[in-house]
Amino acid sequence: AQKVTQAQTEISVVEKEDVTLDCVYETRDTTYYLFWYKQPPSGELVFLIRRNSFDEQNEISGRYSWNFQKSTSSFNFTITASQVVDSAVYFCALSSNNAGNMLTFGGGTRLMVKP
Amino acid sequence: GAGVSQSPSNKVTEKGKDVELRCDPISGHTALYWYRQSLGQGLEFLIYFQGNSAPDKSGLPSDRFSAERTGGSVSTLTIQRTQQEDSAVYLCASSSRTSGKTYEQYFGPGTRLTVT
Fold first, then answer.
1. Chain A partners of B93 at a C-beta cutoff of 8 Å?
2. Which of B90, B40, B43, B42 is nearest to B65 (CA)?
3. Percent of chain B having pLDDT more than 70?
4. B19-58 pLDDT, tens per residue?
5. Does the beta-carbon distance from B48 to A101 stay under 8 Å?
6. Smallest Cβ distance to A101: which of B89, B97, B109?
7. In chain B, which residues have their Cβ closer than 8 Å to the Cβ of A104?
8. Strands A88-95 and A33-39, how do they pair?
9. What pLDDT does B17 receive?
10. Alpha-carbon radius of gyration of chain A
């Protein structure tokens, strides 16, 4: 069975602080995919990033960066210089071909960025 | 281009009634998924359609739930004899998928179902 754990249920920061959202996953598959989604107050899930299990390169996109470490089964997400518009619930998710390609989601981390 | 659309955006129904929820995936996407999001259970997978293959129904919580996908495009999720525990936001997602490759799923705005 696949499992995703986001231990931080809620994080509150002040604008311009850096913040890291943790994600730990479990899977028996050797080929799998990891995702991050953002769910702002409007409710729609917005895709942020997909990583393949065979590509451990970290990725940076503007103020966002992702650290994928197979050795610790983690896929952490860092927002640099946070802004109020980053306030949302962030979900980490996992899928694999052997498990039918559906997404297994973590419980989500609610990020509140205060001005 | 247009994203995933869902209708209705909100649905209030009485316990015991049947409901139908509709999803229009992104044009050209062969894979379509249904999930639901509720306070107690988080985001749960319900059912998955890929091309003309038989759907993966492994996430459906009971036989009151069913879904179909007509012509490889639009999908309808039907809940019969609704119960209060069915109250949730039902999310549809679609993705491109070719053999051996997995792509990101794009989600619709959801249908908020309230069973009174």
1. 45, 103
2. B90
3. 94
4. 999 999 999 898 999 999 998 789 999 999 988 888 999 9
5. yes
6. B97
7. 45
8. antiparallel
9. 98
10. 14
Mind telling me how many Å the CA of B4 is from chain A's nearest CA? 11
Quote the pLDDT of residue B21: 98
Q: Which of B31, B35, B42 sits opposite A101 (nearest CB)?
A: B31
Strand-pair category, B10-13 with B111-115: parallel
Which residues in chain B touch residue A37, judged by CB atoms under 8 angstroms apart? 107
CA–CA distance, B97 with B32 (Å, rounded to integer):
10
**Could you write out the three-class secondary structure of A57-106?**
CCEEECCEEEEEEHHHCEEEEEECCCCHHHCEEEEEEEECHHHCCCCEEC
Residue B86 pLDDT more than 90? yes
DSSP, res B73: S
Task: Name the token pair of A85.
Answer: 């518009």
* Mean pLDDT within A9-36: 96
